[in-house]
Structure formats: C-alpha cells, structure tokens
Specification:
single chain; 166 residues; 7-stranded antiparallel sheet; 7 strands
Length: 166
C-alpha cells in the first residue's frame, strides 16, 4: 500500500477559494497531505465524502437536521453533476477545488488538489463565518474549534488512505 506524508496545518495556497473568508473576523484553517501519485479533484471529492468517518457525519446530518445523503450523491457532486450534497451547496467550483456552504450559511468547507507528475497534495479547509450582529464567532463555535481541528486531520487521513488503497 502506498503511504502518505503527515497531515499538516498549512497556510492557504495562492488562489484558494477559501481565502475570501480570511481576515473576516471568523475562523479559517487549512490542512494538507501529500500522496505519491496523481489523483484528480474528482477522485479526491468522492473519496472524502465516502470515507467511513464522513459517513458518520452524514448519518448525524440525516438524523438531526433531516439532510440525508448517499454515496451516489457524493459521486455526482464530485463529477460536477449536482450543486447540492447533504447539508451543503456549492458556492464555487474550479478544476482543482470546490467550496461548499452549509445550509445555515455559518460555515464553508473547501477541498483542493494540486498534482505534479510524482505526487498530489490534498488540501482541506474550513471557514466559520462570524455572526453579522456581533462580528465574531459564537461561544459554541469557539468551543468546537479544537475538536474540529482533530476531526479535520482524521478526515484528511482517512481520505488519503482511501485514495492510496484504490
């Protein structure tokens, strides 16, 4: 099985669609991992949203906010055949990245891939958008950030393993 490098917290790369949320009083993060070989953005999106770990999040969304989703819907999102998936809609999409907005407009999820001949770097980032009235994040969001950072790394690790095993 092909191995991947470490999951690292990094700055957003130039041209990242998530960059529009930096410096807006909210929270923005970016994690990256590099895998040997070439992987398409389509393969990355599909692998990310169909990992066993993300399927648990999909189950929670189905049960708590009535936003069910399937692996087929994840494949359709990856292929650019739909603009909605579970609790998200596509805010922006490019050849190498996708930016999704949650149904409440409170957060953004972003996936980007950068391939060379020998390797592919996968980026995963999140933005928590500040409340309009206060200009800052609510207490609940601030409390959840440390958990989110661990979860984000675990999601990227699971995705890297899934792609490497394919």
């Amino acid at each position: 099985m092909t191995r991947h490098g470490p999951i690292e917290a990094v700055s957003l790369p130039p041209g990242a669609q998530l960059g529009r949320y930096e410096g807006a009083g909210g929270y923005v993060d970016c994690f990256a991992v590099t895998l040997p070989g070439r992987f398409t953005q389509t393969a990355y999106i599909e692998a990310f949203y169909t990992t066993a770990l993300f399927k648990l999040e999909r189950l929670v969304l189905a049960l708590l906010v009535a936003r069910p989703s399937t692996d087929d819907e994840a494949r359709r999102l990856a292929a650019g055949e739909t603009e909605a998936f579970a609790a998200w809609t596509v805010e922006a999409r490019g050849e190498d990245q996708i930016l999704l907005c949650d149904f409440q407009g409170a957060s953004r999820s972003w996936l980007m891939s950068a391939a060379t001949e020998a390797a592919t770097t996968l980026y995963f980032g999140t933005a928590l958008v500040p409340r309009r009235k206060t200009g800052g994040l609510g207490f609940g969001f601030r409390v959840m950030v440390p958990f989110h950072r661990l979860y984000a790394r675990a999601l990227l690790r699971a995705t890297a393993r899934r792609l490497a095993a394919a």
